[in-house]
Fold this sequence. Notes:
GO molecular function: adenyl-nucleotide exchange factor activity
Keywords: Coiled coil
Helix content: 55-70%
InterPro entries: ARM-like, ARM-type_fold, Hsp70_NEF-Inhibitors
Oligomer: single chain
Organism: Theileria orientalis
Shape: elongated
Radius of gyration: 25 Å
Structural class: mainly alpha
Number of strands: 0
Number of helices: 17
Protein name: Nucleotide exchange factor SIL1
Distance between the termini: 55 Å
CATH class of the domain at 103-223: Mainly Alpha
Strand content: under 5%
Low-confidence stretches: none
CATH superfamily of the domain at 103-223: Leucine-rich Repeat Variant
Amino acid sequence: MSLPHWKGLLKWSLSKTDPDKKEEETRPMSEEDKKFLEGAMASLQNHEKEIANSVSEINRISKLFSNGAHDLTEEEIKILLGSLEMLQEHFEDHPSNSSSLIRLGLLDSFTLLLHSDDDEVLSATLSIISCAFSNNESILEEASKTKLLPNLIKLKDRLKDSDLEPKLISALSSSVRNCRRAEVVFITLDGLTYLKECLGRSNLKTRERAVLLLNHFLSLDRVGKLIVAKLDPYRIVKMLLPVDPVNNGIQFCELSSTLVSLLLQKHSDIFTREEVEDSVRRLDEELASLTSLGNSDYNNIVEILSRAKQF
């Protein structure tokens, strides 16, 4: 439902009634104006009722998963999907309102819905988690104390190589970024190993989102040397080079080049001498290949890979 533009409505209303304005600067509210204002207020009230109903239905249906997986009826799926869609639109239009989901019991509901075997339900749940959690520190802190993050990571085997895997990584990213506690939980649950595995997926979106989240952890020094060594950084470099912008696109190649650069600049001491030499050789070959293409669109990739050698 499309709601009124409230700032515009307030300005319009004050032009009719503002006591600080001279009488000649205000205009009396006509019957048409009154009907418009009443309609706008009714629209708000109806929207609030619909949101409240959506929250109630999500909480009701999610409780069916209290003991694990549960087969929903077609009607329950229809109601649930409609409610999740409306709530996500509400959070997108009013991001600050997403902070209320803890008070409304939705954090527990989203956690339970991750047990669903229905792909549509999972897709909608992952989407709303990504939407509501992104950069919302109050939610992230509370969510990190629940089973939501472990339940997300448990989906990695089921969603492997599926169309939903990019959504899973997006939900994981929104659930850990900007929350140190959540980052620690993610690392403890071997989430970084999962991201490394995703670098070998055929789905470009999966690979791109995995690289982006790995860059987050490495750029902010969230990962110790022992954990990085366990990931086998040399293996990651070999997986990412050559970057192949023609087939993979510029954005993915810039992200991949950044990951290669972070690994070599921050953790070259983990590499053996032979691994360092081979990595430099691969970089030289890639730089020569990109330069020979003569495409200025690749200049940023070349710059990033050139910096990768400066360790």
